[in-house]
Automatic annotation (TrEMBL):
Reactions listed under catalytic activity: beta-nicotinamide D-ribonucleotide + ATP + H(+) = diphosphate + NAD(+); nicotinate beta-D-ribonucleotide + ATP + H(+) = deamido-NAD(+) + diphosphate
InterPro entries, sorted: Cyt_trans-like, Euk_NMN_adenylyltrnsfrase, NadD/NMNAT, Rossmann-like_a/b/a_fold
Domain Cytidyltransferase-like as annotated: residue spans: 7-196
Pfam families: CTP_transf_like
Record-stated family: Belongs to the eukaryotic NMN adenylyltransferase family.
Organism: Caenorhabditis briggsae
Coiled-coil residues: none
Record keywords: ATP-binding, NAD, Nucleotide-binding, Nucleotidyltransferase, Pyridine nucleotide biosynthesis, Transferase
Protein name: Nicotinamide-nucleotide adenylyltransferase
């Protein structure tokens, strides 16, 4: 039986039930195809990522991911990426975690990247300095050397984005695995909406685990000044 670990990267600012469901749906999809998922990893991005004014410190985001995954038997938080001094491209994060996963579970274990459709839409994004957020060569390596699982999200068009990228051969695009959460579709839940709700003093209960809500409250995060 094939064995893999799953990696989810992102700001997790804060983590939501949508992030957790994405990994769970990916695991169910793979296990239905006789693939054993040995663990799930949530890796928050470093503070230096794009210098977003809404991005709170990595130390808080990592602790919130730890809180969100506290009750999970297979998903864990990892701080390697977010504690680095500079932003690390996703391919490099995958290479690092593949080494760690294989040292832990065996050299036969693969690593797959799990993302929402909105992340694929960002494949063509240009950063303020004029550079590409994603390198085409990196995307190709992610698909061919690791594997890419994409969860459909509201108002995202991942396959249309891929089709527009002439650098991505059609035969590779066909290897991207699209997955859908038909049990509990929570793709409309987003970190942006949770931050706005907290700032407006609205409840976010059940949109993220209670442990995350407690951490946000104790540390007085996302409150408008």
């Amino acid at each position: 039986m094939k064995r893999v670990a799953l990696l989810a990267v992102g700001s997790f600012n804060p983590p939501t039930i949508a992030h957790l469901r994405m990994l769970e749906v990916a695991r169910c999809h793979l296990e239905s195809k006789d693939t054993q998922v040995v663990e799930g990893i949530m890796s928050p991005v470093a503070d230096s990522y794009n210098n977003k004014s809404t991005l709170i410190k990595a130390s808080h985001r990592l602790e919130m991911v730890r809180a969100a995954t506290k009750s999970s038997e297979w998903i864990r938080a990892d701080g390697w990426e977010c504690t680095r001094a500079t932003w690390t491209r996703t391919l490099d994060v995958l290479v690092h975690h593949r080494e760690q996963v294989q040292a832990k579970f065996g050299s036969d274990v693969g690593l797959m990247l799990v993302v929402g459709g909105d992340v694929v839409d960002s494949f063509t994004r240009i950063l303020p300095d004029g550079s590409n957020l994603w390198k085409s060569a990196d995307i190709i390596k992610i698909i061919t050397e690791f594997g890419l699982l994409v969860l459909s999200r509201d108002q995202s068009h991942p396959m249309a984005t891929i089709e527009k990228m002439s650098e991505i051969p059609k035969n590779l695009a066909e290897k991207i695995e699209m997955i859908v959460d038909d049990v509990c579709p929570v793709s409309a839940v987003s970190s942006t909406r949770l931050r706005a709700a907290i700032s407006a003093k609205k409840s976010i209960k059940y949109a993220t685990p209670d442990e995350v809500i407690d951490y946000i409250r104790i540390n007085d995060l996302y409150r408008s000044s």
